[in-house]
Amino acid sequence: xxxxxxxxxxxxxxxxxxxxxxxxxxxxxxxxxxxxxxxxxxxxxxxxxxxxxxxxxxxxxxxxxxxxxxxxxxxxxxxxxxxxxxxxxxxxxxxxxxxxxxxxxxxxxxxxxxxxxxxxxxxxxxxxxxxxxxxxxxxxxxxxxxxxxxxxxxxxxxxxxxxxxxxxxxxxxxxxxxxxxxxxxxxxxxxxxxxxxxxxxxxxxxxxxxxxxxxxxxxxxxxxxxxxxxxxxxxxxxxxxxxxxxxxxxxxxxxxxxxxxxxxxxxxxxxxxxxxxxxxxxxxxxxxxxxxxxxxxxxxxxxxxxxxxxxxxxxxxxxxxxxxxxxxxxxxxxxxxxxxxxxxxxxxxxxxxxxxxxxxxxxxxxxxxxxxxxxxxxxx
Length: 380
Ligand code: ATP
Ligand code: MG
Prior knowledge:
Blueprint: E1 2-5, H1 16-30, E2 35-41, E3 44-49, H2 55-62, E4 68-73, E5 75-77, H3 81-93, E6 99-106, H4 115-130, E7 133-134, E8 141-147, E9 152-155, E10 159-163, E11 172-176, H5 182-192, E12 196-203, H6 212-222, E13 228-234, H7 236-245, H8 248-270, E14 275-276, H9 289-296, E15 303-304, H10 312-322, H11 325-328, H12 350-357, H13 363-371, E16 373-377
Parallel strand pairs: 6-7, 6-8, 11-12, 11-14, 12-13, 14-15
Antiparallel strand pairs: 1-3, 1-4, 2-3, 4-10, 5-9, 8-9, 13-16
The protein binds adenosine-5'-triphosphate and magnesium ion.
Residues 176-178, 180-183, 200-202, 259, 277-279, 283-284, 286, 334-336 line the site of adenosine-5'-triphosphate.
């Protein structure tokens, strides 16, 4: 069986059941071929696997599932100390170690031995029968024992999940994804906090035939939330119009205000509640505080930038773990840097930006949305 510990959901008080329901639904969907039965017991989710399943595959899937703190492959035992003791000994006999500890947790208070007593009794058995040393601080082997309502569970390995909240427990957001290093990480952080992320990418069709790279990145991220949608917007015509009437030092801000306005429309259509970007304070010219104020002003929806306080090094570390980094660093023309000044303004004034924007037709937003197309991505 597989024992799932879900960390933060456990703190949710009255709403806990709602979060558990979403997590159980997600697990059922993702492991439908591997799992025969799912049940909840004493603040854990317990999965019964089918015969002959590939445990490596189950592990890979659970490691990517938001809402799981850690999980273990476990052997269910009857609620009987003698049986637990002999199983613990049998497991220990097969392992290579010199020091160990027993870590018992009794959730079922009707079980007649306390956690400390279980530790002592089973610890003594292993120590004496196998001549091993107890080390409570830094043991080479830990034998975990959990006393549930129906069974006791025993295991020696805990695999780390990504934590966070179950996918879909927080509603939808629209993420502006560029194909760079940052925005995939920002999108993933929102997935990890339970948001369903819908992607939106702008490309200049005169520079890039089709942004396959972005699709490749989104496929990686889809592993964390299942079925995923990208809106692709050919931005060539919009950019041409902006280039015609906006000085080069201001174009990037106008491009980005445009992206935000389109994102607002898509957000309405999708009934999303917020927009996500990969901005990080001061990282590039578009991300000074003044410029972010000018850009974010174009939105009626809240804009979240989960990387805002992170350093590039920290962002890269996450991107490497996600496997998006190697794709992101492949060269691709990003339309944001098309025909802009070598030194864009770093302290744009909102009044000026709005004044300039009067030269751009509002209908352009509708026109771009009409040109956009959707792509469905599933994981690789
Ligand atoms: P990234 O690594 O995410 O590209 P960046 O450091 O290159 O970020 P910018 O190019 O200024 O910074 O982009 C800032 C944010 O604007 C991006 O993180 C992304 O959310 C959004 N963005 C930029 N270009 C595009 C694009 N072509 N399509 C959609 N969103 C974009
Ligand atoms: Mg970029």
